[in-house]
TrEMBL record:
Gene Ontology molecular function: any one: hydrolase activity, hydrolyzing O-glycosyl compounds
BP terms from Gene Ontology: glucan catabolic process
Name the UniProt record assigns to this protein: Glycoside hydrolase family 16 protein
Residues in the signal sequence: 1-17
Any Pfam family the entry gives: GH16_XgeA
Taxonomic lineage of the native organism: Eukaryota, Fungi, Dikarya, Basidiomycota, Agaricomycotina
UniProt superkingdom: Eukaryota
Annotated source species: Laccaria bicolor (strain S238N-H82 / ATCC MYA-4686) (Bicoloured deceiver)
InterPro entries per UniProt: Beta-glucanase-like, ConA-like_dom_sf, Glycosyl_Hydrlase_16
Length: 384
């Protein structure tokens, strides 16, 4: 009997520890209170830093449904990546149906797929940036479709205001009818990928050069990056199997990206209590070993865009297997049938340390451990 009871207490140890921590340290209570019962019930949302301190990813911002577009700015300048698009403002985007929210809450953003254009005329499209800025976080995008097709070059990314000194993280990016998502980072000089890190993708390369140096000033700004192994991480198969979830975790320990098919989205993600430590190796990761993350990434907005032709889709068009030229491709709206984002939600979580104060002193950490042990023995004894 005795070992069985102890086993139960050991399993529930995290659930016992959280309310204790919050009542000992009132400053954490406000964060924990609204969803405390959820965390206690699931018990598996506690994450650990390499130094053993524990933390939770707690909800910070949620972008979804009818209010989605209230929290973004529409970019209306010339495309910095030389795409042949007119980025329109919110009024025009709404009036011409480039952005809208369906009655079921699904958010749509698209390039114009209804207007026939004369040769050389740019096509209308959208590029939006979050008003909120972030300096770490766990970003979870649930989408049904990402844009693709000949001449199309979409991206979902985060970027700081002083490019490239504040860094850039490209979470979803591809061109034409590619099938493999390309994750990339662009930074100031002095940041490289750790190729021995644990990730499932392959190092991206072009013209025989591996993209391991994130320096935006070399290699025509290829940055550093990893290409996902799955043929359904971008393009036709990603869309046809119902999309899925992309997650980007940015903290002092790494910047890591995961993607999940719709049928394989982890339960903790669906429950809103994400715990990346249970997701397996990421598709792509930038480790602090060869990159000063704290110095090179700051004040990021989240960006969605759909550009056409330009530095990547234009320059690669001739070798892509797509018909004609990129300029010709722009003219017929039917070519942009699949150039749309369909988004269920974007949720941002922030890291809240549980044991920050406890670990300030070894003594108080030990006090907490012994108190818990004492409770276990006491309760175990009572039950016997
Ligand atoms: C442990 O690491 C986290 C970040 O990973 C940091 O915030 C915390 O202060 C560290 N704790 C100690 C005791 O070093
Ligand atoms: C949006 O763009 C249109 C077309 O360029 C312009 O006429 C209109 O004034 C703009 N609206 C706002 C609110 O900026
Ligand atoms: C590029 O990386 C691959 C492994 O991902 C390696 O086999 C190859 O030698 C590298 N090429 C260069 C030029 O470093
Ligand atoms: C890589 O990650 C997987 C999944 O988290 C883990 O099982 C494996 O031990 C890790 N390998 C290394 C070398 O860290
Ligand atoms: C980030 O933004 C804050 C507030 O606007 C500012 O004080 C800080 O200097 C910025 N940091 C960087 C590295 O740009
Ligand atoms: C759009 O996607 C459908 C379904 O995969 C495909 O049959 C069609 O050719 C695509 N259209 C374009 C213009 O790429
Ligand atoms: C244009 O895109 C929207 C959003 O994806 C889609 O519902 C519609 O069917 C498309 N229209 C054409 C003509 O491709």
């Amino acid at each position: 009997m005795l070992p069985a009871y102890f086993l139960i207490f050991i399993i529930y140890y995290p659930a016992v520890a959280i309310p204790q921590a919050s009542s000992w340290f009132p400053s954490l209570s406000e964060h924990l209170w609204p969803s405390r019962s959820l965390y206690v019930a699931s018990g598996n949302s506690i994450n650990y830093n390499p130094n053993g301190s524990s933390f939770l990813w707690l909800p910070q911002d949620s972008y979804s449904g009818q209010t989605f577009f209230d929290l973004w700015d529409f970019f209306t300048g010339a495309d910095p990546t030389n795409g042949q698009v007119n980025y329109v403002n919110e009024t025009v985007a709404r009036q011409t149906g480039l952005v809208y929210v369906q009655d079921n809450g699904i958010v749509i953003m698209k390039a114009d797929n209804t207007t026939s254009l004369a040769s050389g005329v740019y096509r209308n499209s959208v590029r939006i940036s979050s008003q909120a800025q972030y300096n770490t976080g766990l970003f979870i995008l649930d989408l049904n479709r990402a844009p693709w097709g000949c001449a199309v070059w979409p991206a979902f990314w985060t970027v700081g205001g002083n490019w490239p000194y504040d860094g850039e993280v490209d979470i979803i990016e591809g061109v034409h009818d590619n099938e493999h998502n390309q994750v990339a980072w662009h930074t100031a000089p002095g940041c490289t990928l750790d190729t021995t890190a644990n990730f499932t993708g392959t190092i991206s390369s072009s013209d025989g050069v591996n993209h391991t140096d994130c320096n935006a000033f070399i290699n025509s700004n290829s940055g550093c990056g990893m290409t996902e192994w799955s043929r359904a991480s971008y393009g036709p198969y990603f869309d046809s199997q119902g999309g899925g979830v992309f997650a980007m975790k940015w903290d002092e320990n790494s910047i890591a990206i995961w993607s999940f098919y719709r049928v394989a989205i982890p339960k903790d993600v669906i429950a809103g209590t994400p715990n990346p430590s249970g997701w397996g190796a990421p598709s792509a990761v930038l480790e602090p070993s060869d990159c000063n993350l704290g110095q090179l990434f700051a004040n990021h907005s989240i960006v969605f865009d759909i550009t056409l032709c330009g530095d990547w889709a234009g320059n690669s068009y001739a070798t892509s297997g797509c018909p004609g030229t990129c300029e010709q491709r722009l003219m017929d709206p039917a070519n942009f049938q699949n150039a749309s984002w369909s988004i269920n939600s974007l949720k941002v979580y922030r890291k809240v340390l549980l044991s920050a104060r406890v670990t300030n002193s070894v003594t108080s950490k030990l006090t907490m451990e012994f108190t818990t042990l004492y409770l276990m023995i006491l309760l175990g004894g009572l039950l016997l």
